[in-house]
Write a structure and sequence with these properties.
By secondary structure, this protein is of the alpha/beta class. The chain is built from 26 helices and 24 strands. Strands 3-4-2-5-6-1-7 form a seven-stranded parallel beta sheet, sandwiched between helices. A six-stranded parallel beta sheet has the order 8-13-12-9-11-10, sandwiched between helices. A hairpin with a 4-residue loop joins strand 23 and strand 24. Helix 5 packs parallel to helix 6 and helix 19 packs across helix 20. The radius of gyration is 27 Å and the shape is globular. The N and C termini lie far apart (79 Å).
Length: 650
C-alpha cells in the first residue's frame, strides 16, 4: 500500500494566518495546530494525536482554504458532520456532506458540486466510499487532502474498530497525489503504527500534542457505597455534569435516585426514541438539566465547554474510552473533576462481562446461522444484499447477551462474511396533527415560527394527511434560520401536539459480503481471534492498573499510556494532593485542620447551612473540607440535620 515517492508540497494560494483571521477571526493558532497544518501543506502524510477539544477541525479546514482543490473529510459521526457543514456554510465556506440519510438525487447533486463546482470540503461517512455514485466521480475530483477523523477506528487493534473504515485505504490507490491527515484523540503506539500502515503512509510521521489536562483533576474513590460518593461530588462541585454507567436500566434508576435527593437530573441511552434523546441533550446543554446520567451512547459530538464534573459509576473497558469520556469535563480551561468510583467486586464483574463478550468460535458460527435465519436468507443466497437489522431486538428475541452478539458480528466482519452498518440514516419525517387554521394561532416561537410554518407548507404537499420526509438543513436555508433554531421550533410543535415528528435516525443494517454459507463452512481466523482477545485484555488490564494505582500521578499514567514518556506529575489529582499533604510537617498540618474546624464552627454559629454552601463559603480544596466535616460530625462537634443542613451541636 505504500507509495514509492514522497508527495510534493502543495501550492499555497492564501497564507494560513490570513485564512485563520479572515474566516474564523483568530490571530493565533492553538498548540501544535500550525505544525500539523504546515506538515500536510508540505505534502507529508501526518498522524495527529490530539486530545478531545484540541481544535482538530481547523487542522484540515485551514489547509482546504489555503490551496486549490477539494478536501475529503471521512468521519463516522453524522450529527457532527451535519453540524460542521452548517457552521462552514454560515461562514460562507462551500461545504457539503454525503451520508446514507440523503436521497440519491441530493447525493448526486452534492458529488457533482465537488466535481464541477467550487466546493472546498466534502464530509463523507466511511460506508459511502464503496458506493458506485462516489467511485464514479472520485477520479474526476481534484482532491488535495484526505482527512480521516477518529482514525483509530481503522485499526482492528483499536478500542473502537469499525470495519467500514477499512475502505479508506482504497482512496490511497485512487488518489496517489493527495496528502492524508489522520486524526485521533486516543491511539497507543501499536494502534498508531497500524493506522499509518493501513492508510499507506510513505513514511511514519506522528505529531503528538500533549494529553495533559492541567485544569482537570483526576480522582479514584474505592468505595462500597458508590451512591454516597456520587452525592458528595454532585453537592460539592457546582455546575453541570455527566454520570456514566454501563446499563440503560442503571441510568434510569440512578437518575431517579438523584431526583429524589433534590438533584436536577435526567437520563440518556440509545433505547430512548430519537426525538426524546435530542430533547434531553438540548435540555442539558442549555442548563435546564444539571446532571445527565447516561450510557456511553451520550457524548459523541457534544459541544459543551462548561462541564464541571464527569463521574464514572462503572469501570470503562479501556483507558482510551475513559480518557475520551472524562475529557468532556473542563473544555473551557476552568477547574473540573473526573471521578472514577470503584467497588471491590468491579474487576471481577467486568471480567465476567469480558468472557461473555468473547464467544468461542462455535458460538460465532451459531450466531451467523441465527442472523441468516432471522433475515430469511437461504444457503447460497444473499450475496451483496443489505437488510435492516436491529441488534437489540435480535438479542432480546434470541435471548443472547448483547456484548456476545456484537463481538461475534465484528469478528464475522473482519473475516469478510458480513458488515454491520451502524450509521445508516433515515431522513426526518413530519405530519401535522392539527388543522391548517389552528397553526396561525400558535403563540410560541414568534416570527421564527411563522417563517418555519410558511416554509414547510411551501416546500411539502400533503403534510396534513400523511408523513412526508423533510430535509431540516434545506428548510433552515429557505427559512433563513439556523439548523439549531429549526430543530428547536420543531420540538415546540411536537410538545404542543401540533405535529407528529420522527427525527432523522440511524437504522442499522447488515450487508452480506458473500452468499450465505453452511454453518460448518464459516472460518474464523485463529490468529485474528487470538490477537483481538489479547488486545482487549491488555486494554482492560491498563484500565485496572489506573483504577487500583495508589502511588503514581493519574495524569502521568494516562499520558504515558498514549506514548509521552516525559509526562510530569499534574499536581491536582488525588495522588498528587495526597503526597503534597504527606510532605507537610505534622504540626503544620494539624494546625491547618484545627484552623479549618474553627472556621467551620464560626460560620455555622451564624446559622445552619447545606454542605455545598459551607464548602463554597470556606474556599479551598472541596475533598479535604468534606473529610474535615465528616470527622467533625463523627466526633460530635457538628451534626447533619434532617433538613440536610449542618448545624452546631448544643
Amino acid at each position: 500500500m505504500k507509495l514509492s515517492e514522497r508527495h510534493s508540497a502543495h501550492t499555497i494560494t492564501t497564507p494560513i494566518d490570513e485564512v485563520l483571521r479572515k474566516w474564523w477571526g483568530y490571530t493565533d493558532f492553538r498548540p501544535m495546530q500550525r505544525e500539523i497544518i504546515e506538515s500536510i501543506l508540505g505534502g507529508r502524510d501526518t498522524l495527529a494525536l490530539m486530545p478531545t477539544g484540541g481544535g482538530k477541525s481547523l487542522t484540515y479546514q485551514i489547509p482546504a482554504l489555503a490551496v486549490e482543490g477539494l478536501t475529503i473529510v471521512v468521519t463516522p459521526l453524522i450529527a457532527l458532520m451535519k453540524d460542521q457543514v452548517d457552521r462552514l456554510r454560515s461562514l460562507g465556506i462551500p461545504a457539503v456532506a454525503v451520508h446514507s440519510g440523503m436521497d440519491s438525487r441530493k447525493i448526486e447533486l452534492a458529488l457533482d458540486n465537488c466535481t464541477y463546482g467550487d466546493t472546498k470540503l466534502l464530509y463523507i461517512a466511511p460506508e459511502r466510499l464503496a458506493t458506485e455514485a462516489f467511485r464514479a466521480r472520485l477520479t474526476r475530483m481534484k482532491v488535495s487532502f484526505v482527512a480521516v477523523d477518529e482514525a483509530h477506528c481503522i485499526s482492528q487493534w483499536g478500542y473502537d474498530f469499525r470495519p467500514s473504515y477499512q475502505r479508506i485505504g482504497e482512496l490511497r490507490r485512487q488518489l496517489p497525489d493527495a496528502t492524508f491527515l489522520a486524526l485521533t484523540a486516543s491511539a497507543t503506539a501499536t494502534v498508531a503504527e497500524d493506522i499509518m500502515y493501513r492508510l499507506g503512509f510513505n513514511e511514519p510521521h506522528i505529531i503528538r500534542t500533549s494529553f495533559a489536562r492541567p485544569n482537570l483533576s483526576y480522582t479514584v474513590r474505592a468505595t462500597e457505597d458508590k451512591y454516597e460518593q456520587l452525592l458528595r461530588v454532585v453537592r460539592n462541585v457546582e455546575g453541570s455534569g455527566i454520570v456514566y454507567i454501563r446499563t440503560r436500566e442503571g441510568a434510569e434508576q440512578l437518575a431517579e435516585l438523584l431526583r429524589n435527593d433534590g438533584i436536577n437530573a435526567s437520563f440518556y441511552h440509545a433505547g430512548l426514541p430519537a426525538m426524546e434523546r435530542s430533547i434531553r441533550q438540548d435540555e442539558w446543554q442549555q442548563n435546564r438539566v444539571r446532571v445527565m446520567v447516561a450510557t456511553n451512547a451520550f457524548g459523541m459530538g457534544i459541544d459543551k465547554a462548561d462541564v464541571r464534573f464527569v463521574v464514572h459509576y462503572s469501570l470503562c473497558d479501556s483507558l482510551e474510552a475513559y480518557y475520551q469520556e472524562a475529557g468532556r469535563a473542563g473544555r473551557d480551561g476552568k477547574r473540573s473533576y473526573a471521578v472514577l468510583l470503584v467497588a471491590p467486586d468491579d474487576a471481577l464483574r467486568i471480567k465476567r462481562n469480558f468472557d461473555n463478550e468473547f464467544p468461542p468460535i462455535a458460538q460465532i458460527q451459531h450466531i451467523y446461522e441465527r442472523v441468516a435465519n432471522t433475515l430469511q436468507i437461504a444457503i447460497g443466497d444473499g450475496c451483496g444484499a443489505s437488510f435492516n437489522f436491529n441488534i437489540h431486538e435480535f438479542c432480546h428475541r434470541e435471548r443472547l447477551y448483547h456484548g456476545t452478539v456484537e463481538s461475534a458480528l465484528k469478528l464475522l466482519e473482519q473475516n469478510g462474511y458480513m458488515t454491520l452498518i451502524e450509521e445508516h440514516d433515515n431522513p426526518a419525517k413530519l405530519m401535522f396533527t392539527c388543522s391548517r387554521d389552528s397553526l396561525y394561532h400558535l403563540n410560541a416561537g414568534g416570527n421564527d415560527m411563522d417563517k418555519l410554518l410558511r416554509t414547510l407548507l411551501r416546500m411539502y404537499d400533503g403534510l396534513f394527511s400523511t408523513f412526508r420526509s423533510i430535509d431540516e438543513l434545506q428548510i433552515a436555508a429557505y427559512a433563513e434560520l439556523s439548523a439549531e433554531r429549526v430543530h428547536e421550533l420543531l420540538s415546540i410543535l411536537w410538545r404542543t401536539h401540533s405535529i407528529r415528528y420522527i427525527p432523522s435516525s440511524r437504522s442499522p443494517m447488515i450487508h452480506f459480503n458473500t452468499e450465505r454459507l453452511p454453518t460448518a463452512d464459516i472460518f474464523i481466523s485463529p490468529d485474528t481471534y487470538r490477537r483481538r482477545i489479547e488486545s482487549l485484555r491488555e486494554r482492560f488490564d491498563n484500565m485496572l492498573r489506573y483504577a487500583t494505582n495508589n502511588e503514581q500521578c493519574r495524569s502521568t499514567i494516562i499520558e504515558q499510556y498514549f506514548g509521552d514518556e516525559q509526562a510530569k506529575a499534574c499536581g491536582v489529582c488525588d495522588i498528587c494532593l495526597r503526597k503534597r499533604r504527606e510532605k507537610q510537617p505534622a504540626s503544620k498540618s494539624a494546625t491547618s485542620i484545627q484552623q479549618r474546624e474553627q472556621q467551620i464552627v464560626a460560620i455555622l454559629a451564624e446559622g445552619e447551612l447545606p454542605i455545598k454552601e459551607l464548602v463554597a463559603r470556606m474556599g479551598g480544596e472541596p475533598e479535604l473540607l468534606v473529610k474535615i466535616i465528616d470527622k467533625m460530625v463523627s466526633d460530635g462537634k457538628i451534626s447533619l440535620l434532617q433538613s440536610g443542613k449542618l448545624g452546631i451541636n448544643e
